[in-house]
Amino acid sequence: MWILNILIIALFIVLAIEDFVHKAISWKWVILLFCFALILNICKKNPDFFINTMLNLLFILIQLIIITLVFSLKQGYLVNIFKRHFGLGDALVLATLCLFFHPIIFVFFYLSISIYTIIIYSFLQWINNVKILIPFVSMLSIGYILFFVLSIVISNIDLFHNIDWINELLPFIV
């Protein structure tokens, strides 16, 4: 299992570098990551894997619809967000990340990374006074790696599937 986790982390590092440098990612890495995620869940014998994945995908679909509606209302016509606003690679990596998390933790992960990304890139855009393309796959990859490292440091908690830690964290957030 450790070898598989190391391969997954290595893939996230490759994705982060590729996205940051080229503002695009190769499909082969996403397909490989998807396969590794399936193998990881088979090895863990996660009984809720299918339901969790479907709920996470539904959440992402709702997010993409909302983003499409916001940009369409702003422009006055139906906008294809994948042409200018949101990369297809971003959506594919998000869909692959759906395989790794319990739905509640996935929402927390997604919102945390999104808010962090918006804050960092808004600040950088304000400082440079120029529009910056956001390497969202890089941010998602770094977030996953940090999550994984944190789950090793806090060895008694499975940050990916055990929602107890979220319940303990909620009073501090709200």
Give your account of this protein's structure.
It is built from 8 helices and no strands. The chain is globular and about 45 Å long. It has one domain. α2 packs parallel to α5 (88-97) and α6 packs across α7. The protein has 174 residues and is mostly helical.
Number of strands: 0
Order of helices and strands: HHHHHHHH
> What composes the largest sheet?
none
Number of domains: 1
End-to-end separation in angstroms reads 36 Å
Helix content: over 70%
Helix tally equals 8
Unreliable spans? none
The average pLDDT is 88
Classification by helices and strands: mainly alpha
Describe the global form.
Answer: globular
* Amount of beta strand: under 5%
Radius of gyration: 17 Å
Write a brief structural summary.
With 174 residues, the protein is mostly helical. It has one domain (2-173). The chain is built from eight helices and no strands.
Short descriptors:
about 170 residues, mainly alpha
Compile the SSE list and pairings.
Blueprint lengths: L1 H21 L4 H18 L4 H27 L5 H4 L3 H10 L5 H26 L7 H18 L10 H10 L1
Helix pairs in contact: 1-2, 1-7, 2-5, 6-7
